[in-house]
Amino acid sequence: MIHWDETTWAELDVAYCWNLWQPLTPMGKRAKRRVRPFRPGEEREWEQVLREQDEINLWLAAHPRCQALVSHCLKKMPDIEGQLDKLGADEVLGLTDWFHMKQFLWQFGQLHHLMREHRCTVVSLMPEEDVPLVEQCLARLNPGTNRTAAFWIDDAYDDDLRRLRQQWCRMEIKERERVEQCKREIEEAYGIRRNRLGTWTVPRHTPLEEALRQDRRVVCEAETAYDVTFRLPEVADQEMARLQEQVEAREQAVCVQLTEEFRRVYPRLRYWMQQVTHFDLQWSRYHAGQKWAGVRPEWDGDRVLLEGAIHPGIAQDVAAEGRSVTPIDLEVGRGVTVITGPNMGGKTVALKTVGLIAVLAHYGLFVPATACRLPLMHWIASTLGDGQSTKQGLSRFGAEVVRLTEWLNQPGEGLLLLDEIGRGTNPREGAALAQAITSRLSEGNDWAVHVTHYHEVNQLPGIRRYRVAGLSWPDLEREGLGSEGAWRERLHRHMDYRLIPVQREEALDADALRLALLLGLPEEIVADAERRLGSGEDEGKTAAESG
Fold first, then answer.
1. Beta strands in 341-494 (DSSP E)
2. Where are the alpha helices (DSSP H) in 118-205?
3. What range(s) does the DNA mismatch repair protein MutS core domain occupy (predicted)?
4. pTM
5. Dist CA 424 CA 397 (whole Å)
6. What is the C-alpha separation between 436 and 429, in angstroms, rounded?
7. pLDDT at 392 over 50
């Protein structure tokens, strides 16, 4: 089973894109919570999900007005999971249940008609032989002459129900007339008028108040320090109550009869709901991909190939600062791909972008790139960020080793994203460990990307190498970094974030000391560091101290 843990999910900032995937029906929202990524061996099903999104795109290009119409139908579609559960459990559906059932059938029929009229063959909501059955179900829930999406227990369902309701209405009219006559008599007798609530409010401690308190036709409803409110008493009419019970009994009988009839089509109802749920997931997948200008990923058994890839969440954050992200081009084969480059060069962003795209693709979503090829994998894991675990009492280095050990022993083939392995301990041991881990991964069948500053790692045989293009030093040194508030913006402006393939023999730029000088570190300290770097003195001291 494919797997990534909560730490990887958080480190890759998947939540931003995940939250943009929003099904419109309650069934679709519930299905999204249960959806699982595609696994190796499910390439055919994966391709089908992606192909359907392509077909949605083509259909909407030919019929753009259908976008709003389909979305409207899906948004109005109620959840009938509870009603179907009742049918399956031999329970009687009540008035609210039938309202939801009719709403579903109404919107379902509207959606099917819309898609058939505009020749949409993306997903078949139902075979054509089911269309008369849907119409029959709707007609059974709408026995009157006026077709509507609402539901009530119409008189047309039962002659006895009609007769009882008519009798009850006559008695209700008679009772209203009696009440109105009584109110008129009271108002004529006392010279008062009722308020909008049908009650009378009179001043306290007046003859009028005393007279009304003595009148058995009214009762005191409320009183304050200044006035008293009177109303007619409620009269319990036993005949009307008996009739109401009979009406409710007949309505219940109609619900029982409808339940028995719909139980016979229960399998089709369940199938139609499943088809709507699948279409809603596909519809929302497609629209999520549109929000980040996604492209359909293609299957490749041996490599991850990205062109023009971005991380939409990071792109949004960068846009808020008035900047734009640089799309990355990267090929990750089996074994290890190493990325080197200056600090603030976007190496970690590249890792997050690779991981995010892999996760989205495994859920059958279009990905934020101009081209993407990748295999289906058993797992995706990352070791990014600080990684300290106060709960386990682990330092960054300790937490990093624990996570790495877990994923190195993970069964199946996966994608491993490593950010500066070994930097949490002393440089000499960290470099040796980073070399050993990279060498081990280069011999395996997993896909690993390792961001590192260690020159020794970059010299290992059998790895694919990239570097960040880096700073434009002539322009930066001519312009300078300026004030504290401006240097970050100037660094970003002069940084080329593109990933450039490099050969093992190619020397990597050492930008740290030049940047330190620009940032204001005293020249004598930078010169001393250059001398030590050139003589290897720092390595000798480290070796002596370690010995």
1. 371-374, 379-383, 414-419, 447-451, 464-471
2. 131-140, 159-190
3. 7-317
4. 0.82
5. 5
6. 10
7. no
